[in-house]
Structures are given as structure tokens and as C-alpha cells.
Amino acid sequence: MTRNGTNEEDARMRTQVGIVGAGPAGLMLSHLLHLHGIESVVLECRSREYVEQRVRAGVLEQGSVDLLHRTGLADRLLREGMRHEGIELRFDGESHRVPMTELTGRAITVYGQQEVVKDLIAARLAAGGSLLFEADAVRLDGLDSDSPVIHFRRDGRDEELHCDFVAGCDGFHGVSRGAVPDGVLRAYERTYPFAWLGVLAAAPPAVDELVYANHERGFALYSLRSPEISRLYLQVAPDEEIAAWPDERIWAELRTRLETVPGWSLNEGPVLEKSITPMRSFVVEPMQWQRLFLAGDAVHIVPPTGAKGMNLALADVALLGDAFAAWYGQQRTDLLETYSTTALRRVWRAQHFSWWMTSMLHRLEKDDPYETKLQAATLRYVATSAAYATSLAENYVGLPEV
Ligand code: FAD
Ligand code: DHB
């Protein structure tokens, strides 16, 4: 990053790749570019504390773990991450294990998204990287020139970041996607008639592996963060207010939906955090316009049932990192040109898998007995067919090639 010298122009900075958003996508891209000797600046509208504490996803595919390893970010992940070789499906008062590693040779690792974010921030700062927190990108200009500009506000001042390329990694509500002229992008979308209530609790998990439960009152998921911390989710109405869910109601509903197997009970404890997330499937194509490259939730959202959101964000920027390396290192344009097409193959595989898992496990309509029968048939097929279980497993642990 270089700053122009005069006071007048002090609010102008220059870098090679300007990155909007310090979520998993933006931070990992900045790290990858650094490993390739390419300069970047990351603009993040929230504070460092906020992004490091934001509780979200928790499942890393094998490919994401491999990426963290390859790029020197796996020290703490190796110590604190929990490798899981199977998941459990609970329905009709029965429990069925999908032995993912036996079926695919691969596994997932449970490690909170905010831990990935903390590790990335620490690595970028240790390497002298430029992460500007509380820097709110308000407008992108000159995306069709070879010197685009990100206008942002920091400490009540208007500032500019001039760059060769902009990476829009600013999530679903960011500004980047909206900077593309009308008529260029096409959106594909589905909203679901429910949301997830997510709970983080100081309670030792009563499970070794994740439990996905289909119950007549709605979906429930039992996950974990550590031997002391449970992470739980409940399907709730889309317009549900968090105030309507005091802790006692949450535990009662979790018991109803999860304690369906004889002799099994969950562990309760103080609720540390709770929030409601709407469920949406969303893709915008293409993922690039001129000098703007979009990645992660800025261009695609999946319902969380397949645990794909963070993994897709990391997969996008792994491609983008290589594409920028080819451009700066060998003056090659091919990988930048094919970025969107290549990334969208994985995106659509994950869209289908997430929609499929969501449809199989949630109460879709209040009274649709036909749908309920189809769900039961699908779950039983997964539980009894190695072919079908392998399909679930290979998508869940992440397909190496799509
Ligand atoms: P984000 O993590 O959203 O990062 C974007 C960043 O850009 C944010 O830090 C934001 O503050 C910043 N930003 C936005 N606008 C601006 C601006 N104008 N200027 C500067 N900065 C800006 N996925 C799963 O796989 N499993 C889950 O269980 C799961 N649970 C989730 C629960 C919740 C509540 C949410 C919201 C998402 C969940 N997801 C889950 C999805 C997963 O967390 C996302 O897919 C992942 O965060 C995507 O990473 P990203 O870097 O693309 O976007
Ligand atoms: C978690 C979240 C998911 O969406 C999921 O499918 C599995 C686990 C979690 O936060 O642990």
C-alpha cells in the first residue's frame, strides 16, 4: 500500500487488489495474494472485535482444511479442530449413522468460522498486511477502467483506495454486487418458509458427531464447538422474534425434537448467544464484471443445512488467488477470464446439495402429508442404500473436483 504525500491527497491510497470485506473470503484472498507476492488492502466496515466474535458456521470440508494447511494456517486448527468421520440422521424415532469417511475416504473438521477469521487476521497482521477495520466501502468507481477506485468512509472521513482490481467479498448485504450496471447480472433465487434459531450454549455436547433431526415439529441440529460448548439449531417461523424464545422454551423444543431415541438426552447449560437466520438460496451470474471479481456470500447464499457457505467462500478465493497470481506473475488472463465459469460449477453443486438436505429435513408446509411421506422415503433410502448414502457423504465432505 502506498499513500500519497500531501495532506490534501492523504485520503488516497493505492494497492494492487482492493478487497471489500474481512469475512473468510476477503481475508483468505488477502493471505493467498500475500503468499504470491501480490499487495492487497482489506476494507471492513465492522470492528476487529466484532468480526472475531461473530458466531456463524462451524463445519470445514476436507478441501478447506487442506487449503488452511497448505497456506500455513492450520496450527490451532490441528490442536482445537475436531475431525468427524460421520454424521447422524434422526427420524421416525430411529437413528442412522452416515459413515462419511468409510464411504468417501474423507472427513470434515468442526472449527468455528470466527476461529478461522481470528487465525487469518493474526496471520495477515503478523505479515504486515493492511486490514482497515471500521472502513465502510460506499461506492466502487471505474470498474471498466484499468484503475478502479473504492470510495470508503473511515473516522468520519471520505477516503479512496485505488487499485488494479476489486474483489467484492462483502457478503450478501455488501455494496460490490450493486456496482455492476443493470442488466449484466442474472439472479437465481429461492426463499424458504422458515428460519433457523441458532444457540451457543455452555453445555458439554451429548454427541460425538453432528445430529440432523427431522421431526414433525420441525428440523433440529445438534452440533458442537468444543468438549464444553454445544451449538444447536431449531427450525422456526421466518418472521420469528428472538424475544419469543426464552432459554427454557429453546431447551424444551430441543428436547422434543432431539430426544426421540430411547435412553438419549441432551445436556443443558447457560445460553451464551442466540440469533435467528433467514434461509435463502441465491446465485448471481456471472461472478465477475470487468475489473470486479465477486466471491463468497456477495454472489451466492445457501441455506445452512449442508454446511457449505464458508466452504464455498474459501473455494472461490482459492481460484481467485491462482488467477491473480497468473496475471501478475505471467501476464496470463485465462484464469481471470474463466474464474466465474469454474467457480459456478462448485456453487451449483452446493446449491443443489443444500436445497436437497433442506428439503429432506425441514417441515416445508404446515400440512402436506405427501411431502412428509416423500421425506421419510428419502431418509430411509439414505439409511439403507450405500449408493445414496455415498452421494450425501461425498457432497457433505466436499467434492475435490466438480
Ligand atoms: P461474510 O462472512 O459475510 O463477510 C463479509 C464481510 O464484509 C463482513 O465482515 C461484513 O461486515 C463486510 N462488509 C459488508 N459490507 C461492507 C462494506 N460496505 N464495506 C466494508 N465491509 C463490508 N454457513 C455454513 O456453512 N454453516 C453454517 O452453520 C452457517 N451459519 C450461518 C449463520 C449465520 C447467522 C450467517 C449470517 C451465516 C451462516 N453461514 C453458515 C454462512 C457462512 O457464515 C457464510 O457463507 C460465510 O460467512 C461467507 O463468507 P464471506 O467472507 O463471503 O462473507
Ligand atoms: C453447523 C452449522 C451448519 O449449518 C451445519 O449444517 C452443521 C453444523 C455448526 O454451526 O456447527
Description:
The chain is an alpha/beta fold. It has helices at 24-35, 48-53, 62-70, 75-80, 100-104, 113-126, 247-258, 309-330, 334-361, 369-384, 386-397, and strands spanning 2-3, 12-14, 17-20, 40-43, 59-60, 82-84, 87-91, 94-98, 108-110, 130-132, 135-141, 149-154, 157-162, 165-168, 186-201, 211-213, 220-224, 230-236, 271-285, 288-289, 292-294, 300-301. The two termini are 36 Å apart. The relative contact order is 0.17. The chain binds flavin-adenine dinucleotide (FAD) and 3,4-dihydroxybenzoic acid. Flavin-adenine dinucleotide is lined by residues 20-26, 43-46, 51, 56-58, 113, 136-137, 169-171, 174-175, 275, 277, 296-297, 304, 307-310, 313. Residues 57-59, 210, 221, 223, 231, 304-305, 307 line the site of 3,4-dihydroxybenzoic acid (DHB).
Low-confidence region ranges: 2-8
Strand content: 25-35%
Bound molecules: flavin-adenine dinucleotide, 3,4-dihydroxybenzoic acid
Largest sheet: 8 strands, mixed
Mean pLDDT: 95
> Which structural class do you get from the secondary structure elements?
alpha/beta
Q: What is the CA-based Rg, rounded?
A: 22 Å
Q: What share of residues is helical?
A: 25-40%
Task: State the helix count.
Answer: 11
Strand order of the largest sheet: 8-7-16-17-18-15-19-22
Number of strands: 22
Termini, distance in Å?
A: 36 Å
Gross geometry: globular
Concise summary:
With 402 residues, the protein is α/β, with parallel strands linked by helices.
SSE blueprint and pairings:
Elements: E1 2-3, E2 12-14, E3 17-20, H1 24-35, E4 40-43, H2 48-53, E5 59-60, H3 62-70, H4 75-80, E6 82-84, E7 87-91, E8 94-98, H5 100-104, E9 108-110, H6 113-126, E10 130-132, E11 135-141, E12 149-154, E13 157-162, E14 165-168, E15 186-201, E16 211-213, E17 220-224, E18 230-236, H7 247-258, E19 271-285, E20 288-289, E21 292-294, E22 300-301, H8 309-330, H9 334-361, H10 369-384, H11 386-397
Parallel strand pairs: 2-13, 3-4, 3-14, 4-10, 7-16, 14-21
Antiparallel strand pairs: 1-2, 5-9, 6-9, 7-8, 11-12, 12-13, 15-18, 15-19, 16-17, 17-18, 19-22, 20-21
The structure holds flavin-adenine dinucleotide and 3,4-dihydroxybenzoic acid (DHB).
